[in-house]
Amino acid sequence: MKLLKKIPLKFNIYLLKELSSILFLSLGILTFILVLSRLGKIADLIINKGVGFKDIFALIAFSVPPYLTFTLPMAFLLSVIVVLGRLSTENEILALKASGVNLRWLFVPIAFVGLIITIGGLFNTNVLLPHCSGLFRETLINVIKKGISVDDKEGVFNDSVPGVVIYINKVDTAKRSLAGIVVSDDRDKAVKQTISASSGFVHIDPDTFDLYFMLHNGSLHRWEKATDTYRNVSFQDYTFTMNLSQMVPTAGVSRKLAYEMDRNELKKTLAKTTNLNDRYDLLLEIYKKISLPLSSLAFIILTVPLGVRRKVEGKFSGTLYSLLLFIFYYVLMAMTDSLGKNIHAPPYLITFLPNAVIVAMGLYMVRSLNKEEHVTISQRLKYLWVYCLEKAK
């Protein structure tokens, strides 16, 4: 209790406020940057397809959880290093040392924030992400239907599908049937065909994004330009198919990917999978549902000594260290995944190995946390680089 009293409550509150402000700011910026890659495609939906802002906002909201898997631990990592680095630069860490405070007590407020981030990450990967991925696909199907709008436009020539012009004389919205249908198909430059039918209806496959025109009592006129051959065929029932996955680029993946599934879905898919490599990938994803959120707890042990020792190395050095450490973590994760497949190591061991490496690095640096050193981290890296070059010679 005496040791606990050496850390003023006001300082803990002050540190939590600083961490929270940087955390929310960095989380918002990082997530926005990743979502930014989709804004151009979404703008095309608004301008060219006439999709409403309600659907656009839903698509953006449902696409955020996959990015939170990465941005939550990265924002926490960035906020801790930046805040502690600023405290060290402004000699507030030195003042704590001079007051006899054991800097290891800094882990208490930081671990509290890290625990909240970890719980949020577990909820995101196991509940929010699988649920939103399904909602994203449902919204996307509705967007495609609204984009082509072949079943609610009558008496006009509809060219929303590239290379295809559709004319519908009458639309019965109650029965969802069409009458007086004419389709001009110029998708194949070597073949031009025109289809006319007295009636029919439209269906979209949510898995493949194929649009089916079920046509009744009509004729097909086909001109093959290469051989200058003209064909005319009458039909009683005919199905005309168009794939719409290219209309919305995000529709290329029609089924849930492994990382979008919850643990139950992954286990069901695993039971149906016979390929050994595919089974190993699924097992990795099952354990990553836990190991990735737990990376925030692993980062706690490393970021505290890293932030305290940063000294005066520039205003943006904390951001640089965070980015490099984050890249190192995910490169390490990719390497361990590949290594695990080659040596057939237990998947649970492979997924938690990057966290164990981060913890080991942090424990090594924590040993001298309370020591005052005059060599900056960047100088240490330079010395290490020179040492490696000398050994290479």
Description of the molecule:
This protein has 11 helices and 6 strands. The chain has 393 residues and is α+β, with helices and mostly antiparallel strands. A hairpin with a 5-residue loop joins strand 1 and strand 2. Helix 2 runs antiparallel to helix 4 and helix 6 packs across helix 8 (276-308). The chain is elongated, with a radius of gyration of 29 Å. The two termini are 55 Å apart.
Secondary structure: elements and pairs:
Blueprint: H1 2-5, H2 9-48, H3 53-62, H4 64-89, H5 92-98, H6 107-148, E1 157-158, E2 164-172, E3 177-185, E4 191-204, E5 210-224, E6 229-243, H7 263-272, H8 276-308, H9 317-343, H10 347-366, H11 377-392
Antiparallel strand pairs: 1-2, 2-3, 3-4, 4-5, 5-6
Short description:
The protein is of the alpha+beta class.
